[in-house]
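pls ignore typos typing on phone
adenosine-5'-triphosphate + seq
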Amino acid sequence: MTVVSLRDVTREHGQVQALKGVSLEVAPGELVAVMGPSGSGKSTLLNVAGGLDRPTSGTVTIEGEDLARVKDLAALRRTSVGYVFQDLNLIPSLTAAENVMLPRELDGVRSATAREEALAVLAEVGAGEVAGRFPEELSGGQRQRVAIARALVGERRLLLADEPTGALDTATGDEILQLLRTRCDAGAAVLLVTHEPRYAGWADRVVYLRDGAIVESSAVRLESAR
Ligand SMILES: Nc1ncnc2c1ncn2[C@@H]1O[C@H](COP(=O)(O)OP(=O)(O)OP(=O)(O)O)[C@@H](O)[C@H]1O
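k done
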């Protein structure tokens, strides 16, 4: 079964057609890079795919569930979808571990269990030693790892990453991509927005958007990039 499927999706903002009939499916274990010029609809595609934004027309399904029919979309998002945003959105008054625990606690997982899970996933992303620190005490790369840990916790099957390598140096960016790739190889589906051909080289498939439409889709998976 595909993890996420978009069928003939449009998204209009007033006169602006951010997406014009996009169809896309991402399977378990597949990393799809989304590329295209600024304003081509990449972030809109990601938001619609993850149920953060609703399409004007067309259908979005996550693990077979039509998002238009899901009663508790927030709960589905918390259990199935992990987001890594450009601006990270870490909560400044919470430590790294508490930030990672939060989505699990919102799902009713006991604090002690949520903490154990958070510490395990922070260790997995190489941020175990900063678990007790607040976001402002972390470097950009550490913050990004914490944000990724928060997206991974709870074994969510769909990961959406919008320029997760942002302003990071190449070595740190490669490590972040490696983390996404590892989760993907373990069965998650990943949609990655990137401007960098270097990072698209980690993908199984690259989808190019222009003016809200997919203009090209190509298999890549350059083994030499890894
Ligand atoms: N809330 C909104 N209201 C009005 N227009 C919007 C809104 N969100 C996006 N748009 C417009 O939709 C189009 C697609 O925007 P989107 O952010 O998806 O592009 P993008 O490819 O992610 O761009 P970038 O690479 O610069 O982040 C743009 O023309 C943008 O101005």
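The chain has one domain: 4-225. The chain has a mean pLDDT of 90. more later
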